[in-house]
Write a structure and sequence with these properties.
The structure holds 2 protein chains of 2 kinds.
Chain A lengths: L3 H8 L17 E2 L4 H6 L5 E2 L2 E6 L7 H14 L14 H4 L1 E5 L4 E2 L1 H7 L6 E4 L9 H11 L3 E6 L6 H14 L2 E6 L12 E7 L5 E8 L5 E6 L4 E5 L6 H4 L17
Parallel strand pairs in A: 3-8, 3-9, 4-6, 4-7, 7-8
Antiparallel strand pairs in A: 1-2, 9-10, 10-11, 11-12
Helix pairs in contact in A: 6-7
Chain B lengths: L5 E4 L8 E4 L1 H5 L8 H7 L4 E4 L2 H15 L6 E4 L3 E4 L5 H4 L2 H14 L19 H9 L9 H9 L10 H9 L5 H6 L2 H8 L1 H11 L16 E10 L2 H22 L1 E12 L4 E12 L2 H14 L6 E8 L2 E3 L17 H12 L4 E6 L9 E5 L14 H7 L5 E9 L11 E5 L7 E10 L2 E8 L6 E6 L2
Helix pairs in contact in B: 6-11, 10-11, 12-13, 13-14
The chains are: A alpha/beta, B alpha+beta.
Chain lengths: ~260, ~475
């Protein structure tokens, strides 16, 4: 009996293969720029054409710097056409990134020094006193457009159905949509392909918690990624949201203490 | 006729030349081609105006439109010439004399101000367009219908009045040539070699040895249509139906002529004799029905009507030719909207102040080192400069998030992550700052704080290292 049908089935990323996550996945990915973080993500990079949910309460932990290498690659990539030559005004010049209602001003000199071209960045400042769904409508319009490669959105509130709609828009427009929400949104169910949170734990260590990722398993990484890279950590007490979803064999190793 | 001496000059400076002077100025002895400082010396209270190019072209086009009633072949020769093909219209007009009367009537009806002799419009009828133009430029007003007559008139024409480049005129004058007749006696090959083929071609065209092609000028087209409503209403959905119909008419006409528009205006006449309108300008020529409807719809939803609408009128800007675009065979372009069209839609829905672009400014003070401009706003070049490479190296130490305004904080001393930086400057616009900036790390949060040197006890938080 040939093993081909089984091989084909296993190659599809809808089959969870337990401990290892796949290098080849069915959806497009973009390398994060940090090799150690790539090891922990299926497809070795940020999932594209989908929504990435970023849960963060305290800014200044390096959230933009985490995304910066990938964003730079998105707007600087020269996409060649099928013949291998780039046509007319290069795709690089028309790629755009949009910031919608950021909590603070993205500081232009720092962005330019980091390697992003200001002509390709769009800043939307929508009056919050107006209809709060306007920012979601804007994100959807931008995500559906082929020229917009990434949208960073700070919504006032977001319901599950609205998030699903953003996911569809990102898939239709092949856009990387990053939604920033407070940590309290972790308990809400979400259809995002990747859910991350960046926070500081009890021992003042920065930690990146991959809450949910399609084709992979949740991970907790202690990170000062600018200096020491990403180190996986197990936790002494799993977060409440995971207790129902993980199988019993993923229980905590009780010999490890909280002081990591 | 005003009694104030007025002149028109080509530039406002001492070396500006007087192009035209009114009668009051002529009394003081001011003539054409006089320098402005000489004219001011003759008449200290002289008023002078800069030449209005736009106005001149607009006037030329208006006159051309009126002359189109006499002949359908009209060619503009800016800055001040119009060429008409008369042969085909002579029979209709009833002869050359009647044609001249018709043209004079148009010329007199347009402008009616008392002009000095130099500024009077001149009319020349000749066998060739180039010859007529040269004769008119030289200040003559003639009717020439015979070839030998034309040749005789042209031979006497001085070369300085033909509008040839200075170099050509100097070369000919050095050869001892003063008018076209002497020019024609020179060998043809030598003329082509010394002066260029274009000069010789113009001579051939003037004498009728070579045919001239005149491109007919077409008046720019507009679109205007209106529709009255049976029942005056403020409801947007009924207005939308009317606007859809008018837009369909516009788009059909644009499609037949393959043209596009750059702006449209929707004008509403209300019940109590009042009026309201929506004006939309596009950054690029537009002809797509969907985009036009979408943008007008967004504006209509934000418009508060003061009274029920009785009549709706749609006007378009001047039509422009559609820009051609190459399409690919295999690569599908599933998004028909361009980026500019998307931005226009966002601006019309959210307001122009919501869609912004960032620019850097060469200023050391952090809060002045950037600008958030509306997308189509052009900043003055003096304000926005590219940061130099050295400045960019410094900027690598700047935080990615900046607060809208610095916040006073309550801590004593920062934990220094890097050595502090002193930023001073701004004495030129009374916003002088003298600050010491520190990169502080608190509970893993990297903050950009500063201490004002004028008030050392107070610390401020200005940014976060995202």
């Amino acid at each position: 009996m040939s093993l081909e049908p089984i091989q084909k089935l296993l190659q599809q990323s809808s089959v969870w293969r337990g401990k290892t996550h796949q290098e080849q996945v069915a959806w497009p990915t973009l390398s994060t720029g940090f090799a150690e973080l790539d090891d922990h993500l299926p497809g070795r990079g940020w999932p594209q054409a989908s929504v990435t949910e970023f849960l963060i309460d305290v800014y200044g932990l390096g959230e933009l710097q985490l995304l910066l290498p990938a964003l730079k690659k998105l707007i600087n990539t020269d996409q060649a056409d099928i013949e291998g030559r780039s046509t007319g005004p290069s795709a690089a010049e028309t790629s755009k990134i949009a910031f919608i209602n950021p909590p603070y001003w993205p500081y232009a000199p720092a962005l330019e020094a980091a390697g992003l071209s200001l002509e390709q960045i769009l800043l939307m400042v929508i009056d919050r006193d107006q209809n709060p769904d306007l920012s979601l409508w804007t994100a959807e319009q931008l995500a559906r457009h082929a020229d917009c490669k990434a949208v960073l959105l700070w919504p006032k509130q977001l319901q599950t159905g609205q998030l699903r709609r953003l996911q569809l828009a990102a898939e239709a427009g092949n856009t990387w949509l990053i939604v920033f929400r407070p940590l309290s949104a972790q308990s809400q169910s979400s259809s995002a392909t990747l859910r991350l949170s960046l926070s500081v734990n009890a021992v003042s260590e920065k930690q990146l918690h991959i809450i949910k990722v399609r084709g992979g398993r949740p991970r907790l990484l202690a990170t000062d990624f600018l200096t020491s890279g990403f180190k996986p950590r197990s936790w002494s007490r799993p977060p409440a949201s995971l207790l129902t979803s993980l199988p019993a064999s993923a229980a905590v190793n009780s010999s490890q203490t909280a002081s990591l | 006729m005003s009694n104030i001496a007025t002149v028109v000059v080509d530039e406002i400076s001492n070396d500006g030349l007087v192009l035209s002077a009114n009668l009051a100025a002529k009394h003081f002895g001011i003539e054409r081609s006089m320098r402005l400082k000489a004219a001011l010396a003759l008449a200290p209270q002289l008023q002078y105006q800069l030449r209005d190019w736009q106005g001149e072209i607009a006037a030329l086009e208006t006159m051309a439109k009126q002359l189109q009633t006499i002949s359908s072949w009209v060619q503009l020769r800016p800055p001040n010439g119009i060429c008409l093909e008369l042969q085909a219209s002579l029979r209709l007009l009833g002869g050359v004399g009647k044609a001249c009367d018709a043209i004079d009537r148009v010329i007199r009806s347009y402008g009616g101000r008392q002009l000095d002799h130099d500024s009077q419009p001149r009319r020349v009828i000749a066998c060739t367009a180039q010859a007529a133009f040269w004769l008119a430029q030289s200040g003559k007003q003639k009717i020439i219908t015979q070839q030998h007559d034309l040749v005789r008139q042209l031979h006497r024409l001085s070369i300085c009045q033909l509008g040839w480049p200075k170099k050509t005129i100097t070369t000919l004058q050095r050869l001892g040539v003063g008018n076209i007749g002497e020019c024609l006696r020179l060998p043809r090959k030598g003329l082509v070699k010394r002066l260029g083929a274009q000069v010789v071609q113009q001579l051939d065209q003037a004498l009728g040895y070579e045919a001239t092609v005149i491109d007919a000028w077409q008046a720019p087209e507009y679109f205007q249509a209106e529709q009255s409503l049976e029942l005056a209403t403020v409801q947007h959905r009924y207005l939308k139906v009317v606007i859809e119909h008018l837009l369909r008419c516009l788009v059909t006409e644009l499609d037949t002529k393959q043209q596009a528009v750059t702006a449209i205006q929707c004008h509403f006449e209300l019940l109590n004799q009042r009026q309201q309108n929506i004006t939309v300008r596009f950054s690029e020529p537009t002809w797509q029905y969907d985009h036009l409807l979408r943008v007008i719809d967004e504006r209509l939803q934000r418009l508060k009507l003061l009274a029920p609408v009785q009549k709706c009128r749609l006007k378009s800007s001047r039509w422009v030719t559609r820009p051609l675009a190459n399409r690919h065979f295999f690569i599908e372009q599933d998004n028909n909207r361009s980026w500019a069209q998307l931005l226009e839609q966002l601006q019309s829905r959210l307001g122009e102040q919501a869609v912004l672009q960032l620019r850097t400014v060469a200023d050391h003070r952090p809060e002045y080192a950037y600008r958030a401009l509306k997308v189509r706003e052009r900043a003055s070049e003096a304000l926005i400069k590219r940061s130099r490479t050295a400045h960019r190296q410094l900027c690598k130490q700047y935080p990615l998030w900046l607060f809208h305004s610095a916040k006073a904080t309550e801590f004593k001393k920062p934990i220094m992550h890097q050595s502090p930086r002193r930023i001073e400057g701004g004495w030129w616009d009374n916003n002088d700052i003298a600050r010491d900036y520190f990169h502080d790390v608190n509970q893993q949060q990297h903050r950009w704080v500063f201490q004002d040197r004028k008030n050392p006890d107070q610390w401020y938080l200005h940014g976060l290292f995202g």
